[in-house]
Amino acid sequence: MTLTTTSFDWVRHLVHKESAIVLQPGKEYLVEARLLPIARQAGLTDVSQFVESVRIRPDADSTRRIVEALTTNETSWFRDGDPFTALTSTVLPSLLGARGPNERLQIWSAACSSGQESYTIAMLLEDALPNAASRVSITATDISREMVERTRAGRFSQLEVNRGLPAPMLVRHFTRAGTEWEVAPALRRMVTASQCNLAAPLPRMGPFDVVYLRNVLIYFDLPTKQAILRRVRDLMRPDGWLFLGAAETTLGVDDSWERVVVGRSSAYRPLKGK
Ligand SMILES: C[S@@+](CC[C@H](N)C(=O)[O-])C[C@H]1O[C@@H](n2cnc3c(N)ncnc32)[C@H](O)[C@@H]1O
């Protein structure tokens, strides 16, 4: 049986309420494909039947699994390249010049997925700064418990390391662990992973010098994007740097940011007085 309208609408509203992710009508195929494995684990072969059972008697674990299944965790190492080149070419020298020698730099990977973004940043810092872990901390957050656990574990399959990780970096920063690759302890010491829903009031964190908020705003409606950008700005240093995904911008969304060109990338900086 294909997904009923009632089931689809219930899932759509649940996902929006819990994560702010917008699932437009027409995404029934996506809901069905993502929920089928969970339905099967519950002993059901029909997604509508599974959704109905949770709708009638909701439990926290099933609703969390439904929401998490509808997040898109697509990611890779050095995704789009330029926002990471900008970190070492411009952002880091500028921050090191502006901060005292004992001030810790704080970087936030705000929708970290399975951790490739956070460890990309960690590798660059480890290569650029002597004893980087004593100078920089990286906060990695995601709404998905599973993604946070994966980031914490710092283990990646061969298929995953094949997606954008240069071989010399693999050799330098990873060790083999069975069929997987494990990030070096020095990188793990830099990264702290925790669950955080960007669409809800944020925990006390930061203040951050650099925020990577990449490839996540695309899933939200305009008021949610505005609220998130406002909340993120509140956790940033006044001279901080924000990197968004290639298809994302603050322009026409929130005018309290200045867009600056950094090499071949764009960054956004809090505008004073806004
Ligand atoms: C496409 S991935 C982007 C990963 C990484 N930033 C990158 O650019 O490769 C989007 C991530 O956003 C997370 N996400 C979706 N809604 C969220 C929310 N409301 N709060 C926090 N994270 C969310 C998803 O779980 C997913 O891991």
Radius of gyration (CA) equals 20 Å
Largest sheet report: 5 strands, parallel
How many helix segments?
12
Total strands: 10
Which overall shape is indicated by the principal axes computed on the Cα atoms?
globular
Helix content: 40-55%
Q: What is the C-level CATH assignment of the largest domain?
A: Alpha Beta
CATH architecture of the largest domain: 3-Layer(aba) Sandwich
**Whole-number average pLDDT?**
96
Helix/sheet category: alpha/beta
Q: How much of the sequence is in beta strands?
A: 15-25%
Structure write-up:
The chain is of the alpha/beta class and 274 residues long. The chain has 2 domains: 5-69, Chemotaxis receptor methyltransferase CheR, N-terminal domain (Chemotaxis Receptor Methyltransferase Cher, domain 1), CATH 1.10.155.10; 82-270, 3-Layer(aba) Sandwich (Rossmann fold), CATH 3.40.50.150. The protein has 12 helices and 10 strands. α1 crosses α3 (47-56) and α2 packs across α3. Residues 19-21, 71-75, 79, 111, 113, 117, 142-144, 147, 197-199, 214-216, 219, 245 line the site of S-adenosylmethionine (SAM).
Ordered list of secondary-structure elements with their pairings:
Blueprint: H1 5-19, H2 28-41, H3 47-56, H4 60-69, H5 82-98, E1 105-109, H6 116-128, H7 132-135, E2 136-142, H8 145-153, E3 155-157, H9 158-161, H10 167-173, E4 174-177, E5 180-183, H11 185-190, E6 191-195, E7 208-213, H12 222-234, E8 236-244, E9 257-262, E10 265-270
Parallel strand pairs: 1-2, 1-7, 2-6, 7-8
Antiparallel strand pairs: 3-5, 4-5, 9-10
Helix pairs in contact: 1-3, 2-3
Bound molecules: S-adenosylmethionine.
S-adenosylmethionine (SAM) binds next to loops.
